[in-house]
Amino acid sequence: MSPTLRTPLMFALVAVLIVGTGIVQSWNSALLILNMGLVSAVMSLGVNLQWGFAGLFNVGVMGFVALGGLSVVLVSMPPVGDAWAAGGARILAGLAIGAGALVAAVLAWRRVARRWRGWAVAALLIAGFAIYRAVLGPAVDAVESVNAASTGYLGGLGLPVLFAWPVGGALAAGAAWIIGKTALGLRSDYLAIATLGIAEIVIAVLKNEDWLARGVKNVIGLPRPVPYEVDLQRDPGFVERAAGFGLDPTTASTLYVKAGYGLLFAAVLVIVLVLAQLALNSPWGRMMRAIRDNETAARAMGKDVTRRHLQVFVLGSAICGVAGAMMTTLDGQLTPSSYQPLRYTFLIWVMVIVGGSGNNYGAVLGGFLIWFLWVQVEPMGQALMGLVTSGLADGPLKSHLLGSVQHMRLLTMGLVLLLVLRFSPRGLLPER
Amino acid sequence: MDMLNAFVALSNFVLIPAIAYGSQLALGALGVTLVYGILRFSNFAHGDTMAFGTMVAILVTWGLQSLGVSLGPLPTALLAIPFGIVGCALLLLATDRLVFRFYRVQKAVPVILVIVSMGVMFVYNGLTRLVIGPENRTFADGARYLVNARQFREWTGLAEPLVIRGTQAITVVTAVIVVALLFWFLTRTRTGKSMRAFSDNEDLALLSGIDPERVVRVTWLIVAALATIAGVLYGLDKSFMPFTYFQLLLPIFAAAIVGGLGSPLGAIAGGYVIAFSEVAITYAWKKVLGYVLPDSLAPDGLVQLMATDYKFAVSFMILVVVLLFRPTGLFRGKSV
Q1: Which residues are CB-neighbours of B142 under 8 A, at least 6 positions away?
Q2: Cα–Cα distance measured from residue B137 to residue A275, given in angstroms and rounded to the nearest whole number
Q3: Is A417 on the interface with B (CB under 8 A)?
Q4: I want to staple A44 with a disulfide (CB 3.0 to 4.6 A). Which of A320, A351, B220, B261 is the partner?
Q5: How many angstroms away from the CA of B253 is the closest CA of chain A?
Q6: So what's the pLDDT on residue B333?
Q7: Quick count: other Cβ atoms within 10 Å of Cβ B1?
Q8: Across chain B, which distance is largest between two alpha carbons, in Å?
């Protein structure tokens, strides 16, 4: 099959799957799958930029996604005035001291004479850490004790939530720059372990630093870019229009809200996809692929490989951050304990590999297709297991088998990845 | 007396837990480093391999317990370890035959094998959860303490009681035996020597008539043994939960890299380096300092450098420092 035909056919298949869900299950589930599919597609475009374009092995996607989620809280929640009064300035001062100590240590390493620099850096770091803890500690306690049950954190800036999406990208980009500066230029599997570690650290920070985003107490009720269902149901004009389509107000309002998210996400996806396509076909994209395919040759041609790697690493991570912000906006809450590497890092990798690394359309396709599978494997497995166990007598074995169906997901994803790698190693839509 | 008390407190909360945890990490890192040395890729499925082997051992332990078999003061799980190893070895050999061998024959680049191992990780993870479920399980039985607080107080009269849990002692003893056996195997037996030759220089090893498939098979067998033993010891010492084992991947890799990937000695050193720093940095030093320092200087706060949840950050920071200043690790591992 020619690639020009294959791409539209594959996307048609995805459309059929989602519309089929709408007809067989409900339009609400179909839109839910579509929305998360859009978010997943953006994430896998980000990973594709790093892996498909440049061959960078980033398994810290979860960390960048979580930073995007954090940005939603920091941008859109109203500031907590009492908390700022209690210790806001002091927390900022503490963070500035911590950052200052790190910068001073790096400068000392570069400037101080070789004999003394180890001691100088160690002294700076230890002193910096002690002062940082001394300044930050009391302020954190003060902030966290302000109305701990409902706030206990500094709050955000109170800006419209859509601002959080670019901010999430910027936050992720900043983190990626710091990681890239230290870990890029190392071997690929070292970068992998380093990014895996960073992701865990980001989650640990989100879980522990209650003053920042309430930690495991979660921030709920994030502002939304679309109207609330209750308000729609109270609006007589909306109810009338819904009746015109033959829908009851409740269903109509939930569909309307989900469709609103869908349109916003689709707009972001289209922008990112167009930019990624332009980048892929530009001289920059060709240079990236040249570096990926033969680093030494590219270096011989005078390309600054480490710099280009850093650039593409930051860009790809920023896209993951935007997607993370979108996802948290959709959820309406930030729950740090829900971030799990299998779901937010490795599943995205399955999407990219299955879709076709190096091909932007492939990454988008993988995002939709794998997300669809991830959601639908459970009901399908349930039906299958119900059929298999229908002959069994009721007992512990039967209930164990039925109860374990929810773990079929991981097994299926692994099998899908292994089968694609074996029989179609370049993915469903191979790079041209 | 205060110094002795301080030392006992230090042993209780830092030295003994870190030695036990370090032994578990070292066994895990040995598995990772062997796969890296012989098969030349970072195996992301290692944490879940440990989980699978441990799961088989737990199932057999339950079976033995229901038959009334016990080892007296020792945990029954020790009897189940061989079964766990066999189960794990069958799984690994089947995986190699069905999955990894294809790419080895193709001479695929290492990073493709890493991605393949990601798929294997998903499958193992799913398998373990399908069979035993995602819940937290404890399966330690037998005597709980080797040295308990009351006995120690009666013997010595120190205010600070020394406590050694049975599982900690078993971990250390087992780890020493396993490591000694492994090094004996690698340095004294023909198969072990051929493995080292293969790891050092593949072409030369092939030229001298070493059967690569046999070397790979033996490697997987050893990895299965190491992973299962490490997993069972960790599970006895703490508890078994598939997700925790998956997360062990990070400290285990950190240990292997810090020691130098491909170097067995390095893996052991790396395991202890990571374990000691994790425990020392997340321990609240108030008690120990309270004994050591004069009363006027005794600290008010907990003197805990970082919250326990940041233990991953510790393995990560050590990893970064080593990679920046000594990229091949402490023991000069490979850098392919």
Answers
A1: B70, B71, B72, B73, B74, B75, B76, B166
A2: 49
A3: yes
A4: A351
A5: 7
A6: 63
A7: 10
A8: 72
User: Smallest Cβ distance to A196: which of B102, B250, B320?
Assistant: B250
Q: How far apart are CA A23 and CA B221, in angstroms?
A: 51
Cβ separation of B123 and A414 shorter than 8 Å? yes
User: Which of B321, B203, B209 minimizes the C-alpha distance to B254?
Assistant: B321
**A200 interaction partners in chain B (CB closer than 8 Å):** 247, 250, 312-313, 316
Mutate to test the interface with B, among A135, A178, A189 (most CBs of B within 10 A): A189
**Contact residues on chain A for B116, CB-CB shorter than 8 A:** 418, 421
Sign of CA dihedral B37, B43, B48, B49: negative
Q: Is the pTM of this model over 0.95?
A: no
Residue B79 distance to chain A (closest CA, Å): 26
Tell which phi-psi region holds residue B257, choosing left (phi > 0), alpha (psi between -120 and 50) or beta.
alpha
Spell out the residues 6+ positions from residue B31 whose beta carbon is closer than 8 angstroms to its own.
Answer: B43, B46, B49, B50, B222, B223, B226, B227, B230
Chain B positions in Cβ-Cβ contact with residue A356 (cut-off 8 Å): none
Kindly state whether A192 is in contact with chain B, defined as any CB-CB distance less than 8 angstroms.
yes
Q: Which residues have C-beta within 8 Å of that of residue A2, sequence separation ≥ 6?
A: none
How far are the Cα atoms of A310, B115, B193, B270, B285 from residue A358, in angstroms, in the given order?
18, 15, 42, 37, 51
CA torsion sign for A33, A38, A39, A42 is positive
Best of A140, A294, A407, A420 to mutate (most B CBs within 10 Å, chain B): A407
From chain A, pick out residues whose CB is under 8 angstroms from the CB of B118.
346, 349-350, 417
Instruction: Judge residue A395's burial from the number of C-beta atoms within 10 Å of its C-beta, 0-12 exposed, 13-18 middle, 19 or more buried.
Output: exposed
Cα–Cα distance between A289 and A292 in angstroms, integer? 5
- What are the C-alpha distances in Å from A227 to residues A26, A161, A334, B261? 22, 13, 19, 54
Residue A129's Cβ-side half-sphere holds a number of Cα atoms within 13 Å equal to: 11
pLDDT at A423 over 70: yes
pLDDT of residue B336: 42
What pLDDT, on a 0 to 100 scale, did the predictor assign at position B160?
A: 80
Instruction: Give the pLDDT score at A257.
Output: 94
B218-223, Cβ contacts within 8 angstroms, sequence gap of 24 or more: B218/B191, B219/B34, B219/B35, B219/B38, B219/B39, B219/B195, B220/B89, B220/B92, B220/B93, B220/B96, B221/B89, B221/B92, B221/B93, B222/B31, B222/B34, B222/B182, B222/B185, B223/B31, B223/B34, B223/B35, B223/B46, B223/B49, B223/B92
A412 and B323 within 8 Å at the Cβ level: the answer is no
In angstroms, the CA A268 to CA A289 distance is 25
- State the best of B35, B96, B118 to mutate against chain A, taking most chain A CBs within 10 Å: B118
A163 touches chain B (CB under 8 A): no
Any chain B CB within 8 A of the CB of A385? no
* CA gap A58, B228 in Å, rounded: 29
Segment-wise mean pLDDT, segments of 10 residues, chain B, 336 residues: 83 91 96 92 95 96 90 89 97 96 91 93 93 89 81 81 88 95 94 91 88 94 97 94 92 91 91 93 82 76 77 81 80 61
Q: Do A353 and B115 touch (CB under 8 A)?
A: yes
Does residue A395 have a pLDDT over 90?
no
CB contact A186 to B (< 8 Å): yes
ipTM above 0.85 for this complex: yes
Considering only CB atoms, A200 lies closest to which of B112, B116, B250, namely: B250
Distance CA A142, CA A82 (A): 10
Q: Residues A339, A62: contact at Cβ < 8 Å?
A: yes
